[in-house]
Automatic annotation (TrEMBL):
Biological process, per Gene Ontology: methylation
InterPro entries: Methyltranfer_dom
Superkingdom assignment: Bacteria
Organism in which the protein naturally occurs: Clostridium mobile
Protein name per Swiss-Prot or TrEMBL: SAM-dependent methyltransferase
The keyword Transferase is assigned to this record: yes
Length: 390
């Protein structure tokens, strides 16, 4: 390539250098192909601790992005043309250069799927007739990692229901997450993350489908599940995730938290996560409560004495009171709250999702009504105690 083209290539690569520094957490690889006549020579660079391992001409060198760009320009002098494919999760940049011109364009990156895999699983008749948010073919690596898809590229028969559940989870969050600021990295805190399957799903969707910059923090008291989540993130190349084995009460973030999530946290662990979200003034709080034991042994209401003598009805009423009072406390702290069915009640009676979006200042009247209800029900909810005594 001539000097004029290489000068323009140098300028474009400087921009690429800045992009790498800003987006290194979602960088996948860089593929550089040099052309001389009908022959082509390919170099592939993979991420390695803020640098790039670049394999070219049978050698692998660990280079900074700046040094790699210098190498590319130097090698370009020996060839007629080149193509640079800079891949990030879900998106990328294509640079093509020759003696006549050098240009750059943004492209969408989709996973390469073998032909023998592509046809059958796109026609799987057992899946629901819906336009999936997490699509087979594009999210295969993720679906395989979390055990939804087989190595052959088909949704496992015994995991079809789970696949539909996780896709519906994304659907329920879509309407609320798009209201988050789009000019900053969205920090999402998963309290009691467990193996983090749904957090990995959300990471994929926000990063690769919605093209949003995001960072995930998973907290769990179990060292074993944190180790498992770290391994999954490493396998997938999801460097915009961190996991900590810590009690939620001992956690103090070093950055603004935009979203707090609590999925299937048992009993008052949900209240702990809600309290943390309120205390951090999180923009969004999402909770899918699990068992409700606390208020069952506490509450009483004289007008309902004839009804609550039946244990089953008292337990169901305890569930409603628990989640209803959680909703009131969120509203009292300035959140717009909606409670929706997450999955069918045929799957589990614990099927509600609480979605809260911070829109206003606290409402003293609702807080006073909450305290009045506590007294009338002879109940002392954990959420109230966490907020006032933590």
């Amino acid at each position: 390539m001539n000097k004029q083209s290489i000068s323009k290539l140098t300028l474009l690569l400087m921009g690429l250098e800045n992009r790498f520094d800003e987006n290194k957490d979602i960088f996948n690889e860089i593929v550089v192909t040099f052309f001389a006549g009908l022959k082509s020579f390919k170099g592939i660079g993979k991420y390695d601790d803020n640098n790039i391992n670049f394999n070219f001409n049978g050698k692998t060198n660990k280079l900074s992005i700046k040094d790699l760009n210098i190498l590319i320009c130097k090698e370009a002098e020996k060839f007629d043309s080149l193509q640079i494919l800079y891949k990030e999760r879900g998106t990328g940049i294509l640079i093509e250069g020759s003696n006549e011109k050098v240009n750059m364009k943004n492209i969408n990156i989709k996973e390469t799927i073998d032909d023998e895999i592509k046809t059958p699983h796109n026609k799987t008749s057992t899946l629901l007739n819906r336009d999936y948010y997490i699509k087979v073919g594009e999210a295969d690596s993720l679906l395989k990692e979390i055990g939804i898809m087989s190595k052959e590229g088909k949704i496992k028969n015994d995991r079809i229901r789970k696949y539909n559940q996780i896709d519906h989870y994304v659907e329920l969050l879509e309407g609320i997450l798009h209201k988050l600021p789009d000019n900053e990295t969205i920090n999402i805190l998963d309290c009691g993350c467990g193996k983090s399957y749904l957090t990995f799903i959300l990471n994929y969707y926000l990063t690769e489908v919605k093209k949003r910059k995001c960072h995930f923090i998973g907290l769990d008291i179990s060292d074993e599940v944190i180790k498992s989540s770290k391994n999954m993130a490493n396998n997938l190349g999801y460097r915009n995730m961190e996991f900590k084995a810590i009690d939620i009460k001992n956690y103090s973030p070093d950055k603004k938290i935009h979203v707090v999530i609590s999925l299937h946290a048992c009993d008052t662990a949900t209240d702990m996560a809600l309290a943390l979200g309120i205390r951090l003034n999180s923009d969004v709080i999402i909770a899918v409560p699990c068992c409700h034991r606390e208020l069952l042994s506490q509450y009483s209401y004289e007008p309902f004495k004839g009804i609550l003598k039946h244990g089953l009805l008292k337990a169901r009423m305890a569930d409603v009171i628990t989640d209803g009072m959680r909703s009131m406390m969120l509203e009292g702290n300035g959140y717009d709250v909606s409670i929706v069915e997450y999955i069918s009640p045929l799957e589990t009676p614990k099927n509600l999702m609480i979605r809260a979006l911070k829109t206003k200042n606290e409402n003293k009247n609702i807080k006073d009504a909450y305290v009045t209800l506590m007294n009338e029900l002879n109940a002392n909810p954990a959420l109230y105690n966490f907020l006032n005594n933590w």
